[in-house]
Amino acid sequence: MPPSSVDFESLASSKARIWSLGGLLAYGPDYAAMFRRIGEFAARILNGAKAGDLPMEQPTMVELVINRGVAKALGLTIPSSVLLRANLILE
């Protein structure tokens, strides 16, 4: 898919939709937060900052989505310590 046709809304919510593909869990950066930061950086550049002078950043917010329905179908028990860390638990 060419970069000009990337569906950012789908990308940002992809972890929350793992159930539709039968995924057990997803763990990764919070894409919505990353896109907001990209907007902030773009605004700084448009206001005169040099892109090379801006600091490099790594994602600081991550999300954990667990699909308990798939875990149950696979006969897996997810420890409560892991469930407590999840941002979203799908039944």
Please, could you describe this protein's structure?
There is one protein chain. This protein is α+β, with helices and mostly antiparallel strands. The chain has one domain (3-90). 36% of the residues lie in helices and 15% in strands. It has four helices and three strands. It has helices at 8-12, 31-46, 68-73, 80-85, and strands at residues 25-29, 62-67, 88-90. The protein has a three-stranded mixed beta sheet. The two termini are 32 Å apart. The model has no long low-confidence stretch (mean pLDDT 82).
Summarize the structure.
The chain has four helices and three strands; from the N terminus they run αβαβααβ.
Keywords:
91 residues; alpha+beta; 3-stranded mixed beta sheet; 4 helices; 3 strands; elongated
The gyration radius over C-alpha positions equals 17 Å
**Order of strands in the sheet with most strands:** 1-2-3
Overall tally of structural domains = 1
Show unreliable segments: none
List the helices and strands and how they pair.
Blueprint: H1 8-12, E1 25-29, H2 31-46, E2 62-67, H3 68-73, H4 80-85, E3 88-90
Parallel strand pairs: 2-3
Antiparallel strand pairs: 1-2
